[in-house]
Amino acid sequence: QKEVEQDPGPLSVPEGAIVSLNCTYSNSAFQYFMWYRQYSRKGPELLMYTYSSGNKEDGRFTAQVDKSSKYISLFIRDSQPSDSATYLCAMSVYNNNDMRFGAGTRLTVKP
Amino acid sequence: ETGVTQSPTHLIKTRGQQVTLRCSSQSGHNTVSWYQQALGQGPQFIFQYYREEENGRGNFPPRFSGLQFPNYSSELNVNALELDDSALYLCASSFATGNEQFFGPGTRLTVL
Fold first, then answer.
1. What are the counts of helices (DSSP H) followed by strands (DSSP E) for chain A?
2. Using a CB-CB distance cutoff of 8 angstroms, which residues of chain A are in contact with residue B100?
3. pLDDT at B1
4. Which residues make Cβ contacts (< 8 Å) with residue A87, sequence separation at least 6?
5. Chain B residues 39-98 within an 8 A CB cutoff of chain A
6. Is A83 helix (H, G, I), strand (E, B) or coil?
């Protein structure tokens, strides 16, 4: 079993749809949870950052962490074609050190 | 402000050879982390350098080694290349450890 599990998709949705992306993990010591977006031929860029359990909202993006279930989610509201990318979850025990990434979910938003 | 840059963009090597990849960190950043991203996978942490010292290492063999220079740029060296070393190598810099990491575009290494 991988330490971080993420459904690789691909996921295809129409423009304006709500997108739900998820990861599960096995290491209960993880405290820091991140979502990155990676466009083709680019490095990942940080979208959302959460410490411990709870929700965090930033514009059209909402991140949720449920440490009791070892489950994290990213919701994208009013999805746009420009959101088409691979979304990577990442988590770590220590802040921004030795981050463990999921395999990434490839998302396509169709106009 | 210049972002994280990496060189070269692409590289082709043969099994058994050695390779050096380079990373220039973002201005003001003193911490550099290296990751290996195989096709269709998420990045895997190789190691982190903070102020020229190794500050954490992932599950990679010793033939993966690194350096950080006084200007905080960094090199990743891989000896005795294997076919499985073919991947995108990502460098990320941050202002001190524990802060947001900014990724470069990566170096695509192909080992034949």
1. 0, 11
2. 46, 49, 96
3. 56
4. A21, A35, A36, A37, A38, A47, A74, A104, A105, A107
5. 40-45, 48, 55-56, 58, 90, 92, 94, 97-98
6. helix
Is residue B45 classed as helix, strand or coil in its secondary structure?
strand
Rounded distance between C-alpha atoms, residue A13 and residue B59, angstroms = 37
Task: For chain A, give the percent of residues with pLDDT over 90.
Answer: 81
Q: Do A88 and B43 touch (CB under 8 A)?
A: yes
Q: Is the peptide bond between B8 and the residue preceding it cis, with omega within 30 degrees of 0?
A: yes
Helices (H), strands (E): how many in chain B? Answer: 0, 11
Contact A91, A4 (CB under 8 A): yes
CA distance B101 to A99: 10
Q: How near does any CA of chain A get to the CA of B36, in Å?
A: 11
Band the pLDDT of A81: cuts 50, 70, 90: very high
